[in-house]
Amino acid sequence: MSSSIWFQTLSPDDRAHLETSDAAPQTADILILGAGNIGLATAWYLTQAGVSDICVLDSQAPLSGASGANAGGLWFAQQSPELGPLGPLARASSRLYDELPSALGANFDLRRTGLLELGSTTDSIATVQAAGFRAERVLPNELEPSLAPWPTAVYYPDEGQLNPVKLGVGFLRRLRERGVRICTDEANSRPQAGVTVIASGAWTPLVTKALGWTPPIRPLRGQLLATNPLPAGTLRHTILGPRFYYWQLVQGHVAGGGTVEDVGFTSGTNPDDLAAILAERDSLFPTLAGVPTACAWSGFRPFCEDLKPVIGRVPGQDRVYVAAGHFKKGIMLAPVTGKILADLITTGHTDLPIGPLDPARFP
To answer: Pick from 278, 304, 330: which residue ends a domain?
Structure first.
């Protein structure tokens, strides 16, 4: 199980859902390879569409990849200048997130705390507003008293934060109630399936290689760290600094980081990178200077060479779909990605514009 701060917030019952593996069936209507939040969201929306014979297969425990290591940031507005064709998907995903707590009957610490981007330009505000999101220039110290004096920032009031592992546990609970098998101990036993969905994150090319198709997706490592719990309100918003980002969990831990390293599947953390995160954190928030690190971790973001995810039918395959390459936008787009795949599988189409994301762009 991952060492990220998110796993330290789980109850014993939550952990039991992560550590339990169902017996793998011999056959399944739908086989999903990957028990991260995108794979689980796909299974969820398939059950919403009436599909029940589903098996989710993974060689590791659920949420062991990027889903359990990311920052849990829902930065729909701040990301909008670089979203391009993903803009409609981001808006749809934001709406789905508003529905998910009641639909799953789960508390995964979803909050719209807002985000302060330090040093952003006025041009970015116009771009964000043109994309249909809210943004305004503010004096950041009026909104974030713990911040060292800073002249100006852009405030995105609708940005959100969640616990991605609690989200995954919410999916697991409801999926098992609906008869979906989540199989991790028997990953070498692959059921015969009518339709297969590959949602294996940075490992996706290793899976699709057997099909004669290898999308240009590779891992880029990211590192984060967190303190022990601090008083509520130590940080009131997500803060995007010059290099890294910082936020406070519902449980009080203050976390930060967001490095990007092209080191293949080399796991672990680098002391120099962690020192850089702490140096910026302590300069931005003087009250945190000297506060020790409780844990540090890393994860592998699935980076696609054209900066767009790969969502749809695998080229040359009638019954194999893929969802991968989301890079830093995986948690943000997990619900809408799952909904798109469920629509494609059950109806053959989606109302969302996914042409630029077609896997066939990589023959």
So the answer is: 304
Residues 6+ apart with CB under 8 A from 126: none
pLDDT at residue 46, as a whole number = 98
Q: Could you list the residue range(s) of the whole structural domain that residue 19 is in? A: 5-71+164-216+306-361
Beta strands in 168-216 (DSSP E): 181-183, 192-198
Each residue of 44-83: pLDDT tens digit? 999 999 999 999 999 999 999 999 999 999 999 998 877 8
Residues 156 and 241 in one domain: yes
User: In whole angstroms, what is the distance from residue 175 CA to residue 258 CA?
Assistant: 31
What's the CA gap between 104 and 334, in Å, rounded? 15
In this structure, are strands 54-57 and 27-33 parallel, antiparallel, or unpaired? parallel
Distance from C-alpha of 197 to C-alpha of 42, rounded to nearest angstrom: 9
2 falls in which pLDDT band (50, 70, 90)?
low
| DSSP annotation of 191 | P
Q: Of 223, 225, 245, 220, which is closest to residue 300 (Cα–Cα)?
A: 220
Give the list of residues 6+ apart from residue 203 with CB closer than 8 angstroms, or none.
65
Q: Is residue 190 part of a domain?
A: yes
Determine the 3-state secondary structure of 91 from DSSP: helix
Q: Which run of H or E residues covers position 154?
A: strand 153-156
Centre a 10 Å sphere on the Cβ of residue 270 and count the other Cβ atoms it contains.
Answer: 16
HSE (CB half, 13 Å, CA atoms) of 240?
A: 19
Residue 177 sits in the same domain as residue 299: no
Do 187 and 40 share a structural domain? yes
CA distances for 349 relative to 267, 289, 300, 340, 345, angstroms: 38, 53, 31, 8, 8
Contact between 129 and 135 (Cβ < 8 Å): yes
- CATH classification at residue 294: 3.30.9.10
In this structure, how many other beta carbons lie within 10 angstroms of the beta carbon of residue 160? 21
For the segment 277-302, the average pLDDT, to the nearest whole number, is 97
Q: Which helix (H) or strand (E) holds 190?
A: none
Where residue 55 sits, what CATH number does that domain have?
A: 3.50.50.60
What's the domain count of the chain? 2
Same domain, 33 and 154: no
Q: CB-hemisphere CA count at 13 Å for 271?
A: 0
